Amino acid sequence: MSRSPSGDRVALWRNPTFRALLLQGVLLAALVALIAFIVGNTMANLEARGITTGFGFLDERAGFSIPQTLIEFSGDSTYGRTFLVGLLNTLLVSAMGIVAATIIGFAVGIARLSPNWLLARLAGAYVEIFRNIPLLVQILFWYFAVLQALPSPRDSLSLMEVVFINVRGLVIPDPQPLSGFAATPWALLVGIVAAIALGIYAKRRQARTGQALPIYWLGAGLIIGTPLAVFLLTGAPLEWSIPELKGFNFSGGVTVIPELAALWLALSIYTASFIAEIVRSGILSVPSGQVEASRALSLPEAITLRKVVIPQAMRVIVPQLTSQYLNLIKNSSLATAIGYPDLVAVFAGTTLNQTGQAIEIVAMTMAVYLTISLIVSALMNMYNARTLLKER
């Protein structure tokens, strides 16, 4: 029994708070029971069919090769290393796609609002064409219709006889670091930290004095110039492996396989068409009075766009941009259509077929995509919090 506000006794089952807690408890118990039933039933079926469970298979020999690896891999490597190779390849194409799609999307989105009639119509045609063609079809187009039409290695297109393009990919010189190269990565880290510190100082200085520093140029100079200076002062501790045609293929150098190029192009162009519309909507959300005020101050159009319009539009752009980044990362799993060795192809594909450990492999693959998406969402939410309008 409980008491009402007037002091009268009320039956416990009439108390809305108690009923809500009771209903939540029942639903939670039912969910736990359902999960326990599914797990128990699955384990019983696996045992009846003689299928082993666990993650011991990760230490077993894989016995197959992978055409592109960012870490050392051979047929004697384990399935655990296969997982790492697939993960790194997925992260590589996702990161490349996000950077390219963002640049293209912002450029096209701004072009759609250009007073130049031809530029605006071309940008509009880009958006309407590429966002209405399925991504898988675009991947197949770039791979089979464009990259597979390139010449054979013997008839490669060359640039200064050191860079070659053919049906097997892009072949470029491979830098081989020597002993003195170890200081260069540390110099890059120092340049990044110095650029961040300079940005904080410039922001405080502008708030105090009203004078702005060319932070983008200075920051780029620190990030590029610091490791470059160390690189040159240590005697350029690199030697280059130049690709040479031997027989029917090239030896030496680094080969960027056509599967990576096709997937990167398709992901970037397709996602950029959606980002362009997001950028356009964000810019249009900025009150026209802001632009008129900047023109009244005789600010150039480029500075008005960069300093007035885009910073305010980012409050609208960032939340939608996050969704497109997550879509791009998940869409990279379509790489299996053209044989790019991402996580799904080499781990949830080849490894699963060889080991039969479907539950463990699928669960690990799902966990990877979930983790990557949550990390990207967290980073974008942190940036979004910084761009929000601070109200008093």
UniProtKB/TrEMBL annotation:
PANTHER family: AMINO-ACID ABC TRANSPORTER PERMEASE PROTEIN YHDX-RELATED, MEMBRANE COMPONENT OF AMINO ACID ABC TRANSPORTER. The chain crosses the membrane at residues 21-40, 83-108, 129-150, 183-202, 214-236, 256-276, 361-383. One of its GO terms (molecular function) is transmembrane transporter activity. GO terms for biological process: amino acid transport. Its main location: membrane. The keyword ATP-binding does not apply. It is found in: Cell inner membrane; Cell membrane. Belongs to the binding-protein-dependent transport system permease family. HisMQ subfamily. CDD domains: TM_PBP2 (cd06261). Residues 87-380 form the ABC transmembrane type-1 domain. The lineage of its organism: Bacteria, Pseudomonadati, Pseudomonadota, Gammaproteobacteria, Oceanospirillales. NCBIfam families: HEQRo_perm_3TM (TIGR01726). GO terms for cellular component: ATP-binding cassette (ABC) transporter complex. InterPro entries: AA_ABC_transptr_permease_3TM, ArtM/GltK/GlnP/TcyL/YhdX-like, MetI-like, MetI-like_sf. This is Amino acid ABC transporter membrane protein 1, PAAT family. It is a multi-pass membrane protein. Keywords: Amino-acid transport, Cell membrane, Membrane, Transmembrane, Transmembrane helix, Transport. Pfam families: BPD_transp_1 (PF00528). Gene3D superfamilies: MetI-like (1.10.3720.10).
